[in-house]
Amino acid sequence: MAVLDSLDLARRLIRCPSVTPEEGGALDLLQEVLEGLGFRCRRLMFTAAGTPDVDNLYARLGAGGPNFCYAGHTDVVPPGDPAAWRHGPFAAELADGWLYGRGAVDMKGAVAAYLGALSRFLDARGPDFGGSLSLLITADEEGPAVNGTRKVLDALAEEGETLDACLVGEPTSNERLGDMVKIGRRGALNARLRVTGVQGHSAYAHLADNPVHRLVAMLARLTGEPLDEGSAHFPPTSLQVTTVDVGNPTTNVIPAEATAGFDVRFSDRHTSASVERWLRERLDAVGGDYELTVRVSGESFLCPPGPLSDLIARAVTSVTGTPPELGTSGGTSDARFLKDFAPVAEFGLLNATAHKVDERVSLADLDALGRIYQAVLDGYFAA
Ligand SMILES: [Zn+2]
After folding, report:
1. Burial classification of residue 201, based on how many CB atoms lie within 10 Å of its CB (0-12 exposed, 13-18 middle, 19 or more buried)
2. Which end of the chain, N or C, is less surrounded by CB atoms within 10 Å?
């Protein structure tokens, strides 16, 4: 059994220009490497009207249970202006102990670290390690996530395929590798508020109804009190106004409408329905005509601390010397779909440069993450 070089694999993955929803050669590369390790690989292509077609990879080694699944994505967000980067976003260059490139931490580096760990685990244990190993890798996590992980899980469930534990390799570490394992995620809801009034001359305001004044009052209500105080594993729900638009070039016209946008990240004290109710109560209290459009990208969820998070915490501690915090901060991820199929926890690289110019991973972290992942596998399949 060949042992894989994680750094080499990470560089080859970064060189695949797999901006969502492009596969970009990244899934082909993973498939080739996994088949070399003895995995049976399947590609699942999904389509839906109004969304891009998406290629997904499910790979499994072994037939018996338990089935330990590693989930992740090979798609990346666009690099923006390549000239703003110190090193080309798809060049995978090494400098001063860092590997640069889009996806270095989110999350091609983690996928490569996991494959390295997998190859060392199999090299040491052979094929009779007492269960199955699987990988569920999508090319649409950073996009609409309609034809990705969610549909793969539905297809697998229909075939009777079961996952017994799921480790998602998203970049969860904040200040140093291993300081956080995520056991849930906040919910996310995006809203657009349109307030309509009656246009008129600002000198004859009694003949008009100024929607800007009501919009300002509404936003003051929404931001004037907290939605909740958070809970044992969640920070308080956060509502952030992201835009206020009137677009009025005149100085003497009361506009007919005004709009605003805001983003709510909510704890497990709320559901998207209860957030929307909370919003409408406060908007109604101000009164007048308004229209609220809400788009929910995920409900909040918590996989309470248990055997999987304990195992990951022990693996982190064995390599870094410090136990991780079990948290729920940050954005959404595909863990929101996986949690309906198996216990799930997320652990990966530092998120400091994710989605930014000069995204990069330190070679020391890439190596340490691989050792942590290997300790997870050793612990899960302990004889
Ligand atoms: Zn990611």
Report:
1. exposed
2. C
